[in-house]
């Protein structure tokens, strides 16, 4: 249960989800409603759909991919791990640290 709580917290409050939305809203100007909709769909809707899909599958990854061939399920898992880890989350985490901790001092 503790792991599920931490996972849910990280889904919604990951790297930059507290920092970048106000900036995106500010930069959107008169298109604020589109910026809010985009943020709600990508930062709230997709994690919520993921949590619901995992819960409905009942057996985690095996339950979600039981109708797929084993090779496709493995390829999908590898692609997800690469996209979430080194291709997306790690650079974004580094970017947030740079933007908030180093860039203000560099001018």
From TrEMBL:
TM segment ranges: 9-28, 34-55, 67-90
One of the record's GO molecular function terms: L-leucine transmembrane transporter activity
Cellular-component GO terms for this entry: plasma membrane
Coiled-coil blocks: none
Localization of this protein: Cell inner membrane; Cell membrane
Pfam families in the record: Branch_AA_trans (PF05525)
Domain of life according to the entry: Bacteria
Swiss-Prot/TrEMBL GO biological process terms: isoleucine transport; L-leucine transport
Primary site of residence: membrane
Bilayer topology annotation: Multi-pass membrane protein
Keyword field: Amino-acid transport, Cell membrane, Membrane, Transmembrane, Transmembrane helix, Transport
InterPro entries for the chain: Brnchd-chn_aa_trnsp_Livcs
Segment forming the signal sequence: none
Function summary: Component of the transport system for branched-chain amino acids.
Family per record: Belongs to the branched chain amino acid transporter family.
Protein name (database record): Branched-chain amino acid transport system carrier protein
Annotated organism of origin: Aeromonas schubertii
